[in-house]
UniProtKB/TrEMBL annotation:
Transmembrane segments: none annotated. The keyword Repeat applies. Keywords: Repeat, TPR repeat. TPR repeats lie at residues 83-116, 117-150, 151-184, 320-353, 354-387. InterPro entries: TPR-like_helical_dom_sf, TPR_rpt, Ycf3/AcsC/BcsC/TPR_MFPF. PROSITE patterns: TPR (PS50005), TPR_REGION (PS50293). This is Tetratricopeptide repeat protein.
Length: 452
């Protein structure tokens, strides 16, 4: 699956108390106004630690993280033990996706605040992002030892255990988080991901339902539900769950790690655009959209499936598996030119794949090239003599060109190797009827319904 657990976001809550003169609206104060006022204070006392801290906070709140770091470093020139400055530096490096530097900063924070569970939780998040999982767990354990009811730390511990594939420990941590904060939908969706890994699909559905009842825009809960329904072969329910997740996703601002770790969906980037950037960066994590193509096929939405692959392949032309899947769906919709072209591209990556060879041969044969069709189908049989679909395609092509005896022989041979016998018997019955074998055709037709 690229299912995905929601990645940890550093939550820095800093309360600033400020006053305003009469007839002055806070909304009218600009960044430039704040900086000018701060400059004025510092012009009278360049070592004013409070003013320097406020300057760092201004830039941090404006998401100008490099400037926030510079301002925080000025605080440290005045006072090396300024915990606030180290916190700003660590959080800024976190948002700049420099987790190693964030870890260094937060180490200083916890050293200066050995009794503050919040600092250990934040340190754990930074360590987890650098995949220093054991150290991260130790930090979360310190946080929960200092504050046993610290739900966020229990949740983050669960996410880290999940990354370590310690699913029982992850489940225990999420249950702890839920026991202390039962109204947080994220905790339930995270628990759902663990239950998926343990094969408890009904439990995962229950957790996802609880999360969605709290917040219908909880994206991970929709995806947990979709995965569970997918594994239970409830194709339509799975499709609508994934669809619900994408609809909810469009209404949220969040970090969405679908393929690339740094694709941020904001007001300035549509979810679809962000998704395509993600898979362009890391094709193997086509994730939930890949699932929807499978489900589309299962519920016979063939054209929808092809449309999605057309978009994926437009930006990831080296996605070999995508060409195979597109070709397969194109055959099902009888779009033979599209199937031929897709399998031709797939052959560049899979020159000895019996599925690719025989499917390409079938598509070219249906487009009028009998010799090329037989050459590729026979090659597929040579590569893997037991691949029944090669015989199906050989039978269908022979039948198409009026070679009925050869078609019957190929189909009967294919039946010896299993595969989709319903499809094989259906093809065989059609040839037998055309060949005047009414009894044989009727028997094969009946067996196509039974599937054996």
């Amino acid at each position: 699956m690229k299912f995905i657990l929601p990645f940890l976001v550093l939550l820095i809550i800093i309360c600033v108390v400020s006053g305003a003169e009469d007839n002055t609206s806070v909304e009218n104060i600009t960044l430039e106004d704040l900086i000018n006022e701060n400059d004025y204070v510092l012009s009278h006392d360049s070592q004013n630690l409070t003013a320097l801290q406020f300057r760092a906070l201004i830039f941090f709140n404006e998401k100008q993280y490099p400037e926030a770091i510079k301002a925080a470093e000025q605080c440290l020139v005045v006072d090396k033990t300024c915990s606030f400055a180290w916190h700003i530096i660590g959080s800024s490096w976190g948002f700049l996706n420099q987790p190693e530097k964030a870890v260094e900063a937060f180490q200083n924070v916890v050293s200066l605040n050995p009794d503050d569970p919040v600092q250990f939780n934040v340190q754990g998040v930074a360590l987890s992002r650098t995949e220093k999982f054991n150290e991260a767990i130790q930090a979360f354990q310190k946080a929960t030892a200092l504050n046993p009811s610290y739900a966020a730390a229990w949740n983050n511990m669960g996410v880290t255990f999940y990354g370590m594939k310690e699913y029982d420990k992850a489940l225990s941590a999420f249950d702890k988080a839920i026991s202390f904060k039962p109204d947080e939908p994220e905790f339930y969706s995270n628990k759902g991901y663990v239950l998926l890994q343990k094969g408890d699909y009904y439990g995962a559905l229950s957790s996802a339902k609880t999360a969605r009842n709290m917040d219908l825009t909880c994206v991970p809960a929709w995806f947990v539900s979709g995965e569970a329904q997918f594994h239970n072969h409830n194709w339509k329910d799975a499709f609508f769950s994934f669809d619900g997740g994408f609809n909810a996703l469009a209404k949220n601002e969040l970090w969405y790690y679908q393929g690339a770790k740094n694709t941020q969906i904001t007001k300035d980037m549509q979810p679809m655009d962000a998704y395509y950037v993600a898979i362009a960066s890391n094709v193997k994590f086509t994730g939930m959209w890949e699932r929807t193509t499978i489900i589309n096929y299962k519920i016979k939405r063939y054209q929808d499936t092809i449309d999605v692959y057309d978009q994926i392949l437009a930006i990831t032309p080296d996605y070999a598996e995508g060409w195979k899947k597109k070709g397969y769906c194109a055959i099902k919709t009888e779009r033979m030119e599209s199937a031929r072209d897709a399998y031709k591209r797939a052959m560049e990556f899979y020159p000895n794949d019996p599925e690719v060879l025989s499917s390409y041969g079938y598509a070219t044969g249906m487009l009028g090239d009998y010799l090329d069709a037989m050459k590729n189908i026979d090659k597929a049989i040579e590569v893997e003599p037991g691949y029944s679909r090669s015989y199906l395609f050989k039978g269908l092509i022979n039948s198409f060109y009026g070679q009925r005896d050869d078609a019957i022989a190929a189909l009967q041979k294919g039946l010896e190797f299993g595969g989709d016998k319903s499809e094989m018997f259906d093809a065989l019955s059609n040839v037998q009827f055309k060949n005047g074998d009414v009894i044989g055709g009727s028997i094969s037709s009946f067996r196509s319904i039974l599937g054996f």
